[in-house]
Amino acid sequence: KSGSRTLNGKDDVIDGETIETGIAHNRGGGSMLASRIKLASQPSPCRDSIRTIAVTSGKGGVGKTTIATNLSMALARAGRRTLLLDADLGMANVDILLGIHPEFTLLDVINGQHRLQDIVVAGPDNVQVIPAASGRRELSTLGSSSCAGLVRALSEIGSDIDSLVVDTATGISDSITTFCRASHDVLVVTGEEPASLNDNAALVRQLYADYGITRFRLLANMVDNEHAAHQAYSAFNHSLEDLHEVTVSYAGFVPMDAAVRQAAMMHRPVIDSFPKSRAAMAILNLALRTTHWPRADTAGGHMQFFVERLIKQNNVEMEVKS
User: Fold this and answer.
1) Could you give the CA distance from residue 100 to residue 103 in angstroms, rounded to a whole number?
2) pTM, entire model
3) What are the angstrom distances between the C-alpha of 197 and each of 10, 55, 167, 203?
4) Residue 45 and residue 315: Cα distance in Å, rounded?
């Protein structure tokens, strides 16, 4: 269509199917948490190699948390020191999918009983996990300033990691927008059905309209094949063609695979329990591609203290902005 551009990158092959990567269309034509977290006034410098990925979706049931947990493990297996934040604050499931049993969660941080770094637990393949608590209203209703305090606390432990993966909640909330604004890459997980595509398009529209986020990556999950994934991506872009400043890049697809459900029933990630399955191979390829995604100078939004701490070498005091 007029005013668009397409960038074609390398191809990945999974079980004889080709996934085209690097495609992008640019339509160019509770302050309680913030107050209780103790922070150092002079953050130490960190390397500029840290990548932050917010995994999100406007539709439930599309496998968002499965992607976030397995992507984190895949990054760790590739040698990246990876931190996984369960930011689905009211309906946390990361600990279940990883088979871990944390003693403390973000609720203990909110209540002022522990610091953020005190609740980090080790998951499979040495993935570091910040667990949330499921079914707790205190977490599900966190305001933007409290989420900003959490993001700033994350910046204090960022020097020990190479990759930060954030499993956000589903839909639109203060926590979703805060973490998406603070991340390099916003990975939108979608199914191929119209309801999923429509809900995710609505998510992108709101993140752009309200917060100026313009860069997104779309991952088609639980689809039959490459052709179905490209059809979903094409339909998604068509629905957003009036947003001339928004860029949605194709992140690939993860095929429908019974091994994913089997792994979930075992409380284990699919790349661990069924490493040769098609879904596992697709996620391992996704992790490899993320390390080669072009890096923007800033994150998608305006959480500048988070950007500076995670991707720039600096030694200045950072402010919490909400």
Assistant:
1) 10
2) 0.77
3) 25, 16, 19, 10
4) 6
- pLDDT given at position 144: 61
Taking the C-alpha atoms of residue 62 and residue 221, their distance in angstroms, rounded to an integer, is 7
Query: In whole angstroms, what is the distance from residue 131 CA to residue 137 CA?
Result: 15
- Rounded CA-CA distance 86/268 in Å is 16
**Pairing assessment for the beta strands 163-170 and 51-57 based on DSSP bridges:** parallel
How many Å apart are CA 131 and CA 302, to the nearest integer?
25
Whether 200 contacts 166, CB under 8 Å: no
79-102 residues labelled b (16+ CB within 10 A) or e (exposed) = ebebbbbbbbbbbbbbbebbebeb
Supply the pLDDT for residue 113. Answer: 84
Low-confidence spans in the chain with pLDDT less than 50: 1-48, 300-322
Q: How far is 121 from 71, CA to CA, in rounded Å?
A: 17
Q: Which pLDDT belongs to residue 174? A: 65
For residue 39 the two structure tokens come to 């922070």
Contacts with 310 (C-beta within 8 Å, 6 or more apart), sequence order = 46, 50, 52, 155, 158, 164
Q: Are 163 and 83 in contact (CB under 8 A)?
A: yes
80's tokens: 């990246």
Residue with tokens 């895949």: 74
